[in-house]
Design goal:
Rossmann fold; Dna Ligase, domain 1; globular; binds ligand MV4
């Protein structure tokens, strides 16, 4: 097992990783930018190192600074958390060449699943259902129109280096394909330095179901059930839950076993997520692999009782999985709300600054993962998530009731937050029925009345 690791991240995930390390008796080295000098996680780490200016590009994304810190602090491994360098194959490669462990998949796996057209090919090879689409990248406009003719409109043009909703464009007919294709290529080139695009049939009103997997270096892969992340706005998840309220036990099992096939085919080690879309007829399709621990890993921790961060660290250190598939027994229902310092009445504009009062809720079935405290100043340079509020209850109905109680109990003075908006969603009849898809927020938010 590692003796000492560096955490290349900030905020609640840095704190989450420190907690796991303390329980594993591993020393922690935290890094921080000039804007994070007063952050809570720095008081919890064994050692702290300033790695640069406030801008992420000059600190949390600066590979030479992070590697220097790791060398100076003499750590055996780096945990990248989520975001920043977590899915950067080059960074994982640099760690390898410096003989520093990377707590995540191999650089080769990160690169291959990071290429979405390649990930699709791997899925096809593993008999994992994909959305009808092009066989690999589409070269030019003529090719695009021909493939689209075969699949039928509407079509989604996706950037191979995109993902998470970036670099996508809908084409509803031949003329819009002709113009859209070139624009998509140009946008992809500008955004990712890679103009490669591919086509998929556009699935209308899908549900977003993702499967948590764990894979050790010996090639054992297990799943820890799915999360339903259909409640999102502009590709930012707002509410995640497990189990999904809208899939049958049979479909759940089919999706989970497909996720395991995908992980094995991608030679996936460490913790990861396989994302699927489920259409209105309960067909499911692979869309992406997330080669990192995700924000919402906590949902799975609550339903399975498995500490995913501890598992990640153990697997990166070369320990084989002790957990067997039959020992993973999801229980009850978990809901997570992401609380952001944003103003829902001003188009979710970030609302950083002084947190005058921050009193999180408690009581039965409640977990709060947050780096915030009364008197903390939320820096404007990073994402606006200030807390993850989770509840775990026996049933979904009880979980919704506890979540509404806990959201109501939260006292946050200073910045505007998304709490009122989250409460609105939890009270919506379609959400309560589990009758929602990824278009829920956009539809609901454009409606004058919600019921
Ligand atoms: C799609 C789709 C419909 N059809 N692919 C968005 C994020 C990225 N992971 C994939 N995404 C989508 N891919 C096909 N062929 C609709 C989405 C999508 C979406 C997916 C999951 C969660 C929220 C979403 C919101 C809008 C669009």
């Amino acid at each position: 097992m590692f003796r000492r690791i560096l955490i290349a991240n900030r905020g609640e995930i840095a704190q989450r990783i420190i907690r796991a390390c303390k329980e594993l008796d591993i020393e922690t080295v935290a890094v921080y930018s000039e804007a994070d000098a007063d952050a809570l996680y720095l008081r919890q780490a064994d050692e702290t190192i300033c790695i640069g200016k406030a801008a992420s590009s000059a600190s949390y994304l600066d590979i030479p600074s992070i590697i220097s810190a790791a060398e100076i602090a003499d750590v055996e491994a780096i945990h990248p958390g989520y975001g920043f360098l977590a899915e950067n194959a080059h960074f994982a490669e640099v760690c390898r060449s410096c003989q520093i462990g990377f707590i995540g998949p191999s650089p080769e796996t990160i690169a291959s699943v990071g290429n979405k057209a390649r990930a699709r090919e791997i899925a096809i090879g593993a008999k994992v259902p994909v959305v009808p689409g092009s066989d690999g990248p589409v070269r030019d406009e003529t090719d695009a129109v021909r493939v689209a003719q075969e699949i039928g409109y509407p079509i989604l043009i996706k950037a191979s280096s995109g993902g998470g909703g970036r670099g996508m464009r809908v084409a509803s007919n031949e003329p819009s394909m002709k113009t859209g294709f070139r624009q998509a290529q140009a946008e992809a080139k500008a955004a990712f330095g890679d103009e490669t695009v591919y086509l998929e049939k556009f699935v209308e009103r899908p549900r977003h179901i993702e499967v948590q997997i764990l894979g050790d270096k010996a090639g054992n892969v297990i799943h820890l059930g799915e999360r339903d992340c259909s409640i999102q706005r502009r590709h930012q998840k707002l509410i995640e839950e497990a189990p999904s309220p809208s899939i049958s036990a049979k479909l759940r099992d089919k999706i989970a076993t497909a996720a395991i096939r995908m992980a094995k085919a991608a030679d996936y080690h460490n913790a990861g997520t396989v994302e699927f879309l489920v259409d209105s007829e309960d067909n499911f399709y692979f869309i992406e692999v997330n080669a990192r621990i995700q924000v919402e890993h906590t949902v799975t921790e609550m339903t399975t009782g498995v500490d995913l961060i501890q598992q990640q660290i153990r697997m990166a250190a070369g320990e084989p999985l002790k957990l067997r598939q039959k020992d993973v027994t999801p229980r009850g229902h978990t809901i997570e709300c992401r609380i952001n310092a944003e103003d829902p009445e001003k188009d979710f504009q970030p609302s950083p600054g002084l947190l005058k009062t921050f009193v999180p809720p408690g009581g039965p079935g409640v977990r709060v993962d947050s780096h915030c405290f009364s008197g903390y100043r939320i820096p404007p340079h990073y994402d606006s998530m200030i807390a993850k509020l989770l509840v775990h209850r026996n049933t979904r109905e009880e979980a919704i009731a506890t979540m509404l109680r806990a959201l109501g109990e939260f006292v946050i003075e200073g910045p505007k937050t998304t709490i009122p908006f989250l409460m609105d969603i939890l009270e919506h009849s379609d959400f309560r029925r589990g009758n929602h898809d990824t278009g829920f927020v956009e539809r609901y938010y454009n409606l004058p009345s919600k019921r």
